[in-house]
Structure formats: C-alpha cells, structure tokens
Amino acid sequence: MKAQVPGMLGVDELRALVRQGEIDTVLAVFPDLYGRLVGKRITGRFFCEEVLEHGMHACDYLLACDMEMDPVPGYRFASWEKGYGDIRCVPDLSTLRRAAWLERTALVLCDVHDERTGDLVAVAPRTILRRQVERARAAGYVAMGGSELEFFLLRETYESAREKGFDNLEPFGWYVEDYHILQGTKAEPLVGAIRRHMESSGVPVEFSKGEWGPGQHEINLRYTEFLEMADRHVVYKHAAKEIAARQGLAVTFMAKFDDRLAGNSMHLHASLWSAADLRPLFASDGSGSGPTDTFRWWLGGLLRHARAATLLFAPYVNSYKRFRAGSFAPTKIAWAHDNRTVGFRVVGRGASRRIECRIPGADANPYLAYAATLAAGLDGIARKIEPPPAFRGDAYRAEDLPSVPTSLPEAIAEFEGFRALPRGVRAGGGRAPRAFRADRAEKIRGKRDLLGATALSRTRLGVGSTHVVSGGMRELLKPTPRERWRRSPWMRWPTLPMQPRGSTSKWRSSPGLRRS
User: Fold this and answer.
1) Residue 219 is inside which H or E element, if any?
2) 506/327 Cα distance (integer angstroms)
3) How far apart are the first and last CA of the chain?
4) What is the pLDDT of residues 204-235, one digit of tens each?
5) Closest CA to 291 of 154, 387, 172
6) How high does pLDDT run on average in the chain?
7) CB-based contact 126:30 (threshold 8 Å)
8) How many whole angstroms separate alpha carbon 269 and alpha carbon 264?
9) Which of 36, 69, 190, 305 can bridge 376 by disulfide, Cβ–Cβ 3.0-4.6 Å?
C-alpha cells in the first residue's frame, strides 16, 4: 500500500536517484521525547554504502534531555554516571520518502536500538507505539488513525520573535477565519505549499481550512495505521516549520499560544479493524447499522482511562490552559454523537465509524498519544468495559461528569495511580512509563520561577513543546549554567502576562486584534 503513496521511495529507487544526482542528502531521524525529529544529514552516497546496512550512531542523551538540550539527571536509561554513550539508529526503510520541501533530499525514520544488546530502546517514543501496535496485532486488531493538527501562522520570523522576547507576536490574520475561504486565500502561499510538499513527500493530505482563531489553520492528514500516522504527523509538523521559515514566516503548534485566543488541538480519530482481512470492527456491517461490542468496549476503555492518559495528551504546563469552557476544547470526559463539547465525539457510519478524541493538544507527542489510545482501548476490550450512555446537551454546563485534569500536577497524579496503561506500555519495557513520568514531574518541580517567557521561548513558534525548563531531579534548587546565564542582569526575559480564566472572546477587544 505504501508503494502507491506519492513520494515514498524504495531502496533501489533511492540508489538510482543518488547515482543520478537527484538526491544528495538523506535525513536519518528519530522522534525524541517531545516529538521533535533529531538525527543527522547524511550524504546520499554514504547512506547507500554504509548506513543502509549498518545504521548510524547518536548520543543516548537525546532521550534524556530537556527542551534546551540540557541533560536531565534522574534517568536510568542515560546519565552522567553511565557516560552518555551511543545508541544505534536503524533506518525503517518502510518510511523512506522524499523530503520534497528540501532540495535533493530524502528522509527516513529510524528505530533506536541499544548499542550493546541490539534491543529496541524501551523509552524511545517510536518503540512505545510499536509495541502497542504489536500487542494489537497479536490480538487480531489493526488500529487506524488520523490526526487533525492545528497551528497559528504568524507575521514573524523565528528571529524577530526572539528579539521581541516572544511577546506581542502578530498573527497572520485579525479575524476568526473558521472555514473562511477569503482569509484562507491570503495564507494560501504557505498553507498550499505545505499541502503540496506533503503530498509529494509520502504524507497524503485530505484538506486544509481556517480555524477558530486569527491566523489559525488546520491541515488534516489521510488516515492510516497508527505507527505510519504518527510518522506522517511528525514529518508534517517538522516540514511546516521549515517551509514557513523559508517564506519569512513562523508557525506555532503550542497548545495555548495566546491566553486570549483559541488553543491548538490535535484531534485524534481512531477505529479498529481486523488484522486478518482489514474488516472494520466498529459497525456490524457497512450499511450503517449499530455499533458492535468491540466498539463499545473500546470506547469504554478510552473513557475509563481518559484522566490517566491525559498526561500523554497534554504533556506540558501550558497544555492545560487550553481546557476552557466554550473554547471547543473539552473540559469533561464523556462521549456523544457528533457533539464538540465532549472529550470523545463519535462520527461516521458503517465502515467510517470512528471515535474522535478531542483531548490532545497540538503539542502532544503523537507516538505517545496514539500509544495511550491503543493501550486504553485494548484494555477496554480485554475487560469488556461498558461505556456510560451517550451524553446529550452542553457538556461544559454538566456538573455530574468527570473532568479533564486541569493542571500538569493533577495529570501526573492520575498517571501515577494508573495501572492499565503502564502495564500496556510495559510491553515496550517497564522503564518507559517511569521515565516519562519522571521527565514530566521534573518539569514542575524544577525552577517554577522560570515559567514566564523562558518556559515558552522554545514553543511560541513551534520550535519545541512547552515545559518549565531544566533543573535536576536531585538538585531542584540549583540552577544549571544555562539557567544562570538566563538569570544574569544583562539577559532578563520579560514575563508573560497571564489572563484570568474566562471567555475566549476577550481577544476581540484587544488592540490590534479587533474584528473589522
């Protein structure tokens, strides 16, 4: 099936393109804990001669550092005590594709292996999802998913934003352009370029549209199996930033870029199919008849574990600013048919019946979000967890529904006490949930005083994902050299003004953002 996707490459085709000079660089990459692509630019000749067979090496601290690339103490996987050795990155050749937005470049995603044992590294996000996919297949299931990923387009460059202290950044539009074709046309030089480059890079796109914020857009990717979907997701997210930079613009996937504006979501659509014959399992047949037991139990698992899984859907301090009533982001855990006020929205009929989880933000690591979904759903099927009746009405006003966690500490506490998801993730290695939990706890316990613009500096433009910057698990009050540099008198960062929780329409009265 992948061979039919435009932009995907086979090994023989890559060798021929390298010989002809049409490709001279291969990006060999893997996703880190934050969903960023890290790796190396390898000459096409050397990739074909050496890396195809032997892989490449990288430092294991890439899976044990913070967003600023400072090593974080407290990991069992990698540490100063262990010397921060090498990991071996083995290209997954099923992901080999053109990087059409770059000149004469191909891209391949790698699986991360232990250099000594050769085993997959358990804490690598791609490994975590791969293990869940393998569990599902062993049980006779294939999970299909699709990402709806939102971003804000800014009339800034990454450099100009930094010079402004990442404050008072100008959105590309000034009007809520949800579904508006005219405003979309103004942004089409960039958004259209992203669509076309993705279509030529093995990332099929369904459509783009304006979203519910000034300068906000959404690009929807064609559904596929979970692991391939997560791969497409990170390629698209990475490419969007680079394409914007080349046009002198910037994009941000931050969950709550501006307290006055809509948040950026990652709506996660999921359905389950038979591994034997790729038959959809959420409807009794293709005629639109009622849901199956499999559908109900899968949904029951998602609902049962939603609060615990939220840490993987909303992994940063800023993520929780998005969950506000009347914002189209959910605040309550319930399910309903085609209702955008609940956490789980059921859409489609027959073979297209699927469950849209509306909890994840655009800052989520897709490998972990899809892994959490799969683990929760499989647990629901295994334990035959029945969902409650479908909700009707405005979930924002409902007082008898469980709530989405409202802060990172609350989400960590839920994740700490959750057994089904760690048990599922342990199929990828028992260290995986412990490492992720420790990393997120570190984000809160280390240096709360840096939560202002410093905490947002890498994320307002989608460079990374929001977190409270580094500080050791054992030395919480001791600043790192980089933090001491930030605190120096000649390098003061402005603080981000925090708006009180309330109506998302407050932006309309803000100077420079008034509707015309």
Assistant:
1) strand 216-221
2) 12
3) 48
4) 999 999 888 898 999 999 999 999 999 999 99
5) 387
6) 83
7) yes
8) 16
9) 305
* The CA-based dihedral angle spanning residues 474, 475, 477, 479, taken in that order and rounded to the nearest 10 degrees: -140
Phi, psi of 413 (to 5 degrees): -60, -40
Both tokens of 439, joined, read 């990393």
Secondary structure letter of residue 273 according to DSSP: E
Return d(Cα 41, Cα 47) in angstroms, integer.
10
Q: What is the pLDDT of residues 100-155, one digit of tens each?
A: 999 999 999 999 999 999 999 999 999 999 999 999 999 999 999 999 999 999 99
Residue 118 gets the label, from left (phi > 0), alpha (psi -120 to 50) or beta, of: left
Residue 322's contacts (CB-CB under 8 Å, 6 or more residues apart) are 255, 256, 263, 264, 265, 314, 329, 361
- Please state, in angstroms and rounded to a whole number, the distance separating the CA atoms of residues 414 and 402: 13
Q: CB under 8 Å to 196, separation ≥6 — which residues?
A: 100
Q: Average pLDDT in the 393-418 region?
A: 92
Tokens of 429: 């290695």
Up-side HSE of residue 370: CA atoms within 13 Å toward CB?
A: 37
* Helix ranges restricted to H, 141-180: 158-163
Single pTM value for the model: 0.85
Window from 154-163, 336-345, 470-479 with minimum mean pLDDT: 470-479
| CB-CB contact of 309 with 303 (8 Å) | no
